[in-house]
C-alpha cells in the first residue's frame, strides 16, 4: 500500500515536472573550405580560402538575424583538417551543412551532393561513408537551394561528387561552389576574378542561400523532425 | 749499241708491266662489283603506322557541367594499356586547346601510364589466376598515372576537377566496356586530391560517370 502510494506520488510529480516538448533547435553548419596553409584555388591576390571565409561570415550574420543557430568550422585563416571539419559538423547535430567553395572555372553556382548511394541509417556509421544515410535529405536540401538561387536569377548546376568532407557528414550536406557570374550577366570586360570580388554578387549569393535555409527550416518544422 | 739481252729484258719487263696493269685493273673492277653487290640498295622500309580506329571520347563542358560524346578516328597501338593511354591523351589534348569548353593545361603528355588490371572476383583470390589468353577477365580496373605537373597545373574547383575525373572514367568505359573501376595516381603515388577537391584516394566506378547518373545532370 505504501509502495503504491509512493509510486503514485512519483508519477504525479514527474508529470508536473516534465517540461513541454522542446522546440527542436535548428542548426546550420557553415564550413568555409580551405584556410591557413591550404589556399585552395588562387589567381593573383584572389584566394579561395579568403572568399569562403568572407562568405561564411556574411551568411552567418544573415542567418543569425533570422533566428537560426549557426556553427562555423573556422572564423579565421586557420589550417583545419578535413576530419576536424566533419567532427565539428557532426557534433552540432545540424539540420543543414553547407561546405562553401569558390572556383574561377565555370559559371554561376554549382551545388554538389555526395555521390554515395543511399543507405539505411545505422547506429554506427562508417566514417568515410557516413553521408550515405542522409543522402536523400541532402538531395532535398540541394533542391531547396537550387530553387532559391534560381529565384534570385542565378545560373545553377546540380551535380554529385566525392568530397571527403561531405561524405563523412551525418547531416543533410551540400557543397556550394561559387563560380563567376555567367558571362552574359556580368558587365562586359569584367574578368572572372572581378566577378567573384564583386560585393553585389557576393551579397546576392548570400541572401539567396539564407532564403533557402529559411525555407529549409520551414520544411523541417513541417516534417516535425530535427533533420527533415 | 744496246746489247741484245738488254733489249729482251726491256720487252719482258714491258710485257710484265702491261700484264700487271691489266690484272690490277681487273682486280679493281672485281672488287668494285663485289662492294656494289654487298650494298643494300633497296629503299628504306617505311615505319609501320598503327591502323586508324574508331574511338569515343566523353568530353566535359564547364558551362553546363555535362559530358558529351565525340567519336573520332585515330591510330591506336595494339596493347590495351597503350590504347587507353592514347585515347586519354587525345581527350586531354582537346582540353589543352585554347578554345576548350573544359580548359586544362597539359595535353597528352600529362598521362604517364595506364595499367589495366583484372578486378578480383568473389570466387578467386586473384583475378589473374583465372585469366587466360582466350578467357579475358570479366571486369578490369584501370590505373591512370598522371604526371605531377598535371595535378599542380589543373584548375582548382569541385566542378572542373570532378569533370576531368568523370570524363576520363566515362571515356575508358566507352572504349573498354570491361573497365568497371578506375583509380588515379600522381607520379606513381596515391594523391589526396586532384587540385584540392576531387578525391583521388577512392576507387571510381565507371557507372558513376555515366551522364544519367554522374555529375552531368
Characterise this structure.
The complex is a heterodimer of chains A (228) and B (217). Chain A has helices spanning 2-17, 48-65, 82-91, 135-151, 164-167, 192-197, 199-223; strands spanning 27-32, 42-43, 46-47, 69-72, 96-102, 109-114, 156-161, 173-178. With 228 residues, chain A is an alpha/beta fold. Chain A has one domain (24-223): Zn-dependent exopeptidases (Aminopeptidase). In chain A, the strands form 2 sheets. Chain A has a 6-stranded mixed β-sheet with strand order 4-1-5-8-6-7, sandwiched between helices. In chain A, helix 2 crosses helix 7 and helix 4 packs across helix 7. Chain B is an alpha+beta fold. Chain B folds into 2 domains: 1-39; 52-209, no CATH class. Helix content of chain B is 35%, strand content 21%. Chain B has 4 helices and 6 strands. In chain B, the strands form 2 sheets. A 4-stranded mixed β-sheet of chain B has the order 3-4-5-6. A two-stranded antiparallel sheet of chain B has the order 1-2. The longest helix of chain B has 35 residues, at 4-38. Chain B is rod-shaped, with a radius of gyration of 34 Å. Mean pLDDT of chain B is 85; it is low at 212-217. Chains A and B meet through strand 7 of A and helix 4 of B.
Q: Key features?
A:
heterodimer; A: 228 residues; alpha/beta; Aminopeptidase; six-stranded mixed β-sheet; 8 strands; 42% helix; disordered N terminus; disordered C terminus; B: 217 residues; alpha+beta; 2 domains; four-stranded mixed β-sheet; 4 helices; rod-shaped
Amino acid at each position: 500500500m505504501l509502495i503504491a502510494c509512493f509510486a503514485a506520488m512519483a508519477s504525479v510529480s514527474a508529470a508536473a515536472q516534465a517540461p513541454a516538448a522542446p522546440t527542436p533547435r535548428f542548426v546550420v553548419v557553415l564550413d568555409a573550405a580551405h584556410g591557413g596553409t591550404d589556399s585552395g584555388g588562387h589567381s593573383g591576390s584572389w584566394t579561395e580560402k579568403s572568399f569562403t571565409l568572407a562568405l561564411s561570415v556574411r551568411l552567418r550574420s544573415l542567418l543569425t538575424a533570422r533566428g537560426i543557430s549557426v556553427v562555423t568550422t573556422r572564423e579565421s585563416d586557420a589550417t583545419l583538417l578535413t576530419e576536424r571539419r566533419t567532427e565539428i559538423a557532426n557534433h552540432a547535430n545540424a539540420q543543414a551543412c553547407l561546405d562553401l567553395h569558390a572556383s574561377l572555372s565555370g559559371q554561376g553556382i554549382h551545388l554538389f551532393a555526395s555521390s554515395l548511394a543511399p543507405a539505411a541509417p545505422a547506429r554506427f556509421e562508417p566514417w568515410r561513408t557516413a553521408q550515405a544515410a542522409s543522402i536523400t535529405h541532402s538531395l532535398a536540401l540541394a533542391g531547396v537551394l537550387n530553387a532559391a538561387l534560381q529565384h534570385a536569377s542565378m545560373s545553377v548546376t546540380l551535380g554529385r561528387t566525392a568530397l571527403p568532407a561531405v561524405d563523412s557528414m551525418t547531416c543533410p550536406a551540400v557543397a556550394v561552389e561559387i563560380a563567376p557570374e555567367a558571362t552574359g550577366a556580368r558587365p562586359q570586360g569584367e574578368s572572372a576574378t572581378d566577378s567573384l570580388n564583386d560585393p553585389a554578387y557576393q551579397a546576392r549569393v548570400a541572401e539567396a542561400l539564407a532564403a533557402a535555409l529559411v525555407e529549409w527550416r520551414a520544411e523541417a518544422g513541417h516534417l516535425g523532425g530535427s533533420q527533415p | 749499241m744496246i746489247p741484245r739481252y738488254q733489249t729482251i729484258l726491256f720487252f719482258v719487263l714491258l710485257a710484265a708491266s702491261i700484264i700487271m696493269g691489266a690484272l690490277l685493273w681487273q682486280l679493281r673492277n672485281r672488287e668494285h662489283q663485289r662492294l656494289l653487290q654487298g650494298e643494300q640498295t633497296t629503299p628504306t622500309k617505311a615505319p609501320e603506322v598503327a591502323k586508324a580506329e574508331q574511338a569515343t571520347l566523353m568530353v566535359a563542358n564547364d558551362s553546363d557541367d555535362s559530358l558529351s560524346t565525340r567519336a573520332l578516328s585515330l591510330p591506336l597501338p595494339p596493347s590495351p594499356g597503350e590504347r587507353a593511354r592514347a585515347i586519354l591523351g587525345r581527350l586531354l589534348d582537346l582540353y589543352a586547346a585554347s578554345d576548350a569548353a573544359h580548359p586544362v593545361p597539359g595535353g597528352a603528355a600529362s598521362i604517364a601510364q595506364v595499367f589495366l588490371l583484372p578486378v578480383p572476383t568473389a570466387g578467386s583470390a586473384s583475378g589473374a589466376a583465372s585469366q587466360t589468353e582466350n578467357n579475358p577477365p570479366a571486369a578490369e580496373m584501370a590505373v591512370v598515372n598522371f604526371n605531377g605537373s598535371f595535378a599542380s597545373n589543373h584548375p582548382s574547383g569541385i566542378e572542373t576537377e570532378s569533370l576531368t575525373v568523370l570524363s576520363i572514367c566515362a571515356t575508358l568505359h566507352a572504349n573498354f566496356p570491361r573497365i568497371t573501376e578506375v583509380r588515379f595516381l600522381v607520379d606513381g603515388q596515391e594523391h589526396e586530391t586532384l587540385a584540392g577537391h576531387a578525391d583521388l584516394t577512392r576507387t571510381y566506378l565507371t557507372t558513376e560517370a555515366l551522364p544519367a547518373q554522374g555529375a552531368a545532370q
